[in-house]
């Protein structure tokens, strides 16, 4: 009888240890390797819909810089809370070329459209980078009218070192780097590489 009790007690301890280890591994994976992220707004439509869930690689960008075309999750500059640009003297015809100091507590998800040293301007929602228009079949048509906010910013700006310029694919409905500046390297959390919900949209990005 005592043997059975010890066996049952040992099984319970083993189960608790297994559950604890599994939870620890899950938390470690989410903290350091892969983190799920829920799309909170329409800024990435049609690529990502509101409520869609993606997986974010938290370790990849620790060893390699983001590339133009990547979809990344990041902390925007503090200026994103009030659409404040770090360059108070920029003309109305130019995107913001300098972020405010500090980062906001929120997470944003956008597409990288330019990197350090690139010169860009915006025409009808399309990015003209170093004199060439981006290949952008993924963007919405919400900038069909050039009068939409931020859709046409013809004065070129240069992206500073260690900064990346982010824009939503829903160009006429996205709060992004055009208004509060490029994102510092240290504020980038990781790249979104797959979507896992809803089931009909499961796949790699």
Strand tally is 12
Secondary-structure element order, N to C = HEEHEEEEEEEHEEE
Cα gyration radius (Å): 22 Å
- Helical segment tally? 3
- Poorly predicted spans: 16-32
The main pleated sheet reads as: 8 strands, antiparallel
CATH fold group of the largest domain = Umud Fragment, subunit A
Please give the CATH architecture of the largest domain: Ribbon
Structural class: alpha+beta
Total of domains:
2
Distance between the termini: 58 Å
Helix amount: 10-25%
Output mean pLDDT.
86
Strand residue content: 25-35%
3D architecture notes:
It is a single chain. The protein folds into two domains: 1-34; 39-204, Umud Fragment, subunit A (Ribbon), CATH 2.10.109. Strands 1, 2, 3, 4, 9, 10, 11 and 12 form an eight-stranded antiparallel beta sheet that branches. Strand 6 and strand 7 (132-133) form a beta hairpin. The chain has three helices and twelve strands, in the order H-E-E-H-E-E-E-E-E-E-E-H-E-E-E. The longest helix has 32 residues, at 2-33. By secondary structure, the chain is of the alpha+beta class. 20% of the residues lie in helices and 28% in strands.
């Amino acid at each position: 009888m005592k043997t059975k009790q010890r066996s049952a007690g040992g099984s319970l301890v083993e189960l608790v240890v297994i559950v604890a280890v599994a939870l620890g591994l899950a938390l470690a994976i989410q903290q350091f390797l892969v983190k799920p992220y829920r799309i909170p707004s329409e800024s990435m439509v049609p690529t990502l819909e509101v409520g869609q869930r993606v997986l974010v690689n938290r370790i990849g960008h620790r060893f390699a810089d983001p590339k133009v075309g990547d979809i990344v999750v990041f902390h925007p500059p503090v200026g994103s809370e009030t659409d404040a640009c770090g360059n108070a003297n920029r003309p109305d015809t130019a995107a913001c070329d300098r972020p405010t100091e500090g980062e906001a507590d929120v997470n944003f998800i956008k597409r990288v459209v330019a990197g350090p040293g690139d010169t860009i301007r915006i025409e009808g929602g399309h990015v003209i980078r170093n004199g060439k228009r981006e290949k952008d079949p993924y963007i919405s048509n919400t900038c069909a009218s050039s009068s939409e906010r931020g859709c046409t910013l013809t004065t070129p700006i240069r992206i500073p070192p260690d900064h990346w310029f982010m824009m939503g694919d829903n160009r006429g409905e996205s709060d992004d780097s055009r208004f509060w500046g490029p994102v510092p390297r240290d504020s980038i959390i990781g790249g979104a590489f797959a979507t896992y919900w809803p089931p009909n949209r499961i796949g790699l990005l």
